[in-house]
Specification:
alpha/beta; Rossmann fold; 8-stranded mixed sheet; two-stranded antiparallel sheet; 10 strands; about 25% strand; globular
Length: about 180
Protein backbone atom coordinates (compact mmCIF):
# COMPACT_ATOMS: atom_id res chain seq x y z
CA UNK A 1 0.00 0.00 0.00
CA UNK A 2 1.47 3.37 -0.98
CA UNK A 3 1.91 6.18 1.53
CA UNK A 4 -0.72 8.24 -0.28
CA UNK A 5 -3.28 5.42 -0.12
CA UNK A 6 -2.51 4.88 3.55
CA UNK A 7 -2.86 8.62 4.20
CA UNK A 8 -6.18 8.62 2.33
CA UNK A 9 -7.46 5.76 4.46
CA UNK A 10 -6.46 7.57 7.65
CA UNK A 11 -8.13 10.75 6.45
CA UNK A 12 -11.32 8.88 5.62
CA UNK A 13 -11.27 7.26 9.07
CA UNK A 14 -11.03 10.69 10.65
CA UNK A 15 -13.91 11.92 8.53
CA UNK A 16 -16.04 8.96 9.58
CA UNK A 17 -15.16 9.70 13.20
CA UNK A 18 -16.01 13.34 12.63
CA UNK A 19 -19.35 12.35 11.16
CA UNK A 20 -20.62 11.47 14.63
CA UNK A 21 -22.73 14.41 15.78
CA UNK A 22 -20.80 16.81 17.96
CA UNK A 23 -23.45 16.71 20.68
CA UNK A 24 -23.19 12.92 20.93
CA UNK A 25 -19.65 13.04 22.29
CA UNK A 26 -18.95 12.62 26.00
CA UNK A 27 -16.36 15.39 26.13
CA UNK A 28 -17.21 19.08 26.03
CA UNK A 29 -18.66 19.70 22.53
CA UNK A 30 -16.60 22.81 21.81
CA UNK A 31 -13.32 21.10 22.76
CA UNK A 32 -14.27 18.14 20.59
CA UNK A 33 -15.05 20.46 17.68
CA UNK A 34 -11.61 22.12 17.94
CA UNK A 35 -9.91 18.71 17.95
CA UNK A 36 -11.84 17.70 14.83
CA UNK A 37 -10.86 20.94 13.08
CA UNK A 38 -7.21 20.43 14.05
CA UNK A 39 -7.35 16.89 12.62
CA UNK A 40 -8.90 18.20 9.40
CA UNK A 41 -6.19 20.86 9.09
CA UNK A 42 -3.44 18.28 9.58
CA UNK A 43 -4.98 16.00 6.97
CA UNK A 44 -5.55 18.81 4.48
CA UNK A 45 -1.78 19.32 4.47
CA UNK A 46 -1.29 15.72 3.38
CA UNK A 47 -3.37 16.23 0.26
CA UNK A 48 -1.93 19.53 -0.95
CA UNK A 49 0.97 19.83 -3.37
CA UNK A 50 2.86 23.10 -3.14
CA UNK A 51 4.98 24.43 -6.03
CA UNK A 52 8.47 22.88 -6.04
CA UNK A 53 10.20 26.13 -5.11
CA UNK A 54 8.27 26.35 -1.82
CA UNK A 55 10.07 23.34 -0.37
CA UNK A 56 13.35 23.53 -2.26
CA UNK A 57 15.11 22.63 1.00
CA UNK A 58 14.10 19.03 1.88
CA UNK A 59 14.50 19.81 5.59
CA UNK A 60 12.14 22.80 5.51
CA UNK A 61 9.34 22.70 8.04
CA UNK A 62 5.64 23.20 7.30
CA UNK A 63 4.46 26.39 8.97
CA UNK A 64 0.84 26.53 10.05
CA UNK A 65 -0.08 30.05 11.07
CA UNK A 66 -3.16 30.96 13.06
CA UNK A 67 -4.49 34.49 12.50
CA UNK A 68 -6.75 35.97 15.16
CA UNK A 69 -8.09 35.00 18.54
CA UNK A 70 -9.67 31.60 18.86
CA UNK A 71 -9.48 28.70 21.30
CA UNK A 72 -8.54 26.37 18.41
CA UNK A 73 -4.92 27.30 19.10
CA UNK A 74 -4.75 24.81 21.97
CA UNK A 75 -6.00 21.95 19.80
CA UNK A 76 -3.58 22.89 17.03
CA UNK A 77 -0.58 22.82 19.36
CA UNK A 78 -0.84 19.02 19.31
CA UNK A 79 0.20 19.15 15.65
CA UNK A 80 3.65 20.51 16.57
CA UNK A 81 4.82 16.98 17.37
CA UNK A 82 3.75 15.66 13.97
CA UNK A 83 5.17 15.62 10.48
CA UNK A 84 3.48 15.97 7.12
CA UNK A 85 5.02 14.98 3.80
CA UNK A 86 8.21 14.18 5.73
CA UNK A 87 8.47 17.68 7.22
CA UNK A 88 8.08 18.79 10.81
CA UNK A 89 5.08 21.01 11.57
CA UNK A 90 5.54 24.33 13.33
CA UNK A 91 2.54 26.26 14.65
CA UNK A 92 2.63 30.04 15.05
CA UNK A 93 -0.02 32.47 16.23
CA UNK A 94 -0.47 36.05 15.07
CA UNK A 95 -3.02 38.50 16.36
CA UNK A 96 -2.72 40.72 13.30
CA UNK A 97 -2.03 40.34 9.60
CA UNK A 98 1.21 42.36 9.70
CA UNK A 99 2.95 39.71 11.80
CA UNK A 100 1.94 36.73 9.61
CA UNK A 101 5.05 35.56 7.75
CA UNK A 102 6.39 32.38 6.19
CA UNK A 103 3.14 30.39 6.31
CA UNK A 104 2.36 27.38 4.19
CA UNK A 105 -1.09 27.07 5.75
CA UNK A 106 -2.99 30.01 7.20
CA UNK A 107 -5.94 29.29 9.47
CA UNK A 108 -8.05 32.44 9.73
CA UNK A 109 -10.17 32.48 12.89
CA UNK A 110 -13.70 33.81 13.14
CA UNK A 111 -12.43 36.86 15.01
CA UNK A 112 -11.03 38.09 11.65
CA UNK A 113 -14.36 38.07 9.82
CA UNK A 114 -14.51 41.85 9.43
CA UNK A 115 -11.09 41.82 7.71
CA UNK A 116 -11.48 38.67 5.62
CA UNK A 117 -11.47 40.35 2.21
CA UNK A 118 -8.23 42.17 3.04
CA UNK A 119 -6.65 38.98 4.39
CA UNK A 120 -7.56 36.92 1.34
CA UNK A 121 -6.34 39.65 -1.03
CA UNK A 122 -2.96 39.74 0.76
CA UNK A 123 -2.38 36.03 0.08
CA UNK A 124 -3.97 35.91 -3.38
CA UNK A 125 -1.53 34.31 -5.79
CA UNK A 126 0.80 33.17 -2.98
CA UNK A 127 1.34 29.46 -2.36
CA UNK A 128 -0.36 29.66 1.04
CA UNK A 129 -3.30 27.34 1.75
CA UNK A 130 -5.98 29.51 3.38
CA UNK A 131 -8.38 27.70 5.70
CA UNK A 132 -11.11 28.92 8.04
CA UNK A 133 -14.24 27.89 9.85
CA UNK A 134 -16.08 31.16 9.27
CA UNK A 135 -19.26 31.25 7.19
CA UNK A 136 -18.88 31.82 3.43
CA UNK A 137 -15.07 31.64 3.58
CA UNK A 138 -14.71 29.88 0.22
CA UNK A 139 -17.20 32.25 -1.41
CA UNK A 140 -15.00 35.14 -0.24
CA UNK A 141 -11.99 33.54 -1.99
CA UNK A 142 -10.56 31.36 0.79
CA UNK A 143 -9.39 27.90 -0.28
CA UNK A 144 -10.87 25.52 2.30
CA UNK A 145 -13.78 26.33 4.57
CA UNK A 146 -14.87 24.09 7.41
CA UNK A 147 -18.62 24.21 7.88
CA UNK A 148 -21.11 22.68 10.26
CA UNK A 149 -23.78 20.63 8.48
CA UNK A 150 -26.41 18.86 10.56
CA UNK A 151 -24.21 19.16 13.64
CA UNK A 152 -21.19 17.65 11.83
CA UNK A 153 -18.01 19.26 10.53
CA UNK A 154 -17.64 19.17 6.75
CA UNK A 155 -15.51 21.19 4.35
CA UNK A 156 -15.81 23.12 1.12
CA UNK A 157 -13.04 23.85 -1.38
CA UNK A 158 -12.49 26.83 -3.66
CA UNK A 159 -10.44 25.07 -6.33
CA UNK A 160 -10.07 28.25 -8.39
CA UNK A 161 -8.37 30.10 -5.50
CA UNK A 162 -6.05 27.17 -4.84
CA UNK A 163 -5.05 26.81 -8.48
CA UNK A 164 -4.51 30.57 -8.83
CA UNK A 165 -2.00 30.27 -5.98
CA UNK A 166 -0.13 27.37 -7.56
CA UNK A 167 -1.48 24.77 -5.13
CA UNK A 168 -2.70 21.39 -6.31
CA UNK A 169 -5.41 19.69 -4.27
CA UNK A 170 -5.57 15.91 -4.47
CA UNK A 171 -8.58 14.46 -6.24
CA UNK A 172 -9.09 12.30 -3.14
CA UNK A 173 -9.65 15.42 -1.05
CA UNK A 174 -11.87 16.98 -3.70
CA UNK A 175 -14.11 13.87 -3.66
CA UNK A 176 -14.60 14.20 0.10
CA UNK A 177 -15.55 17.89 -0.02
CA UNK A 178 -19.15 18.84 0.56
CA UNK A 179 -18.86 21.44 -2.19
CA UNK A 180 -16.15 22.43 -4.69
CA UNK A 181 -16.08 25.82 -6.40
CA UNK A 182 -14.60 25.33 -9.87
Amino acid sequence: MTNRCFAALIFIAILVSAATPLSARAEEPLLHEYRIKAAFLYNFAKFIQWPELVFIDPERTVFICILGNDPIMGALQSLSAKTVQGRRIVISHSKNLRSVKGCHILFVTKSEKSRIKHTISKFKGSPVLTVSDMDDFVKAGGMIGMVRVENKIRFQINLVSAQDSGLKISSQLLKLAQDVIK
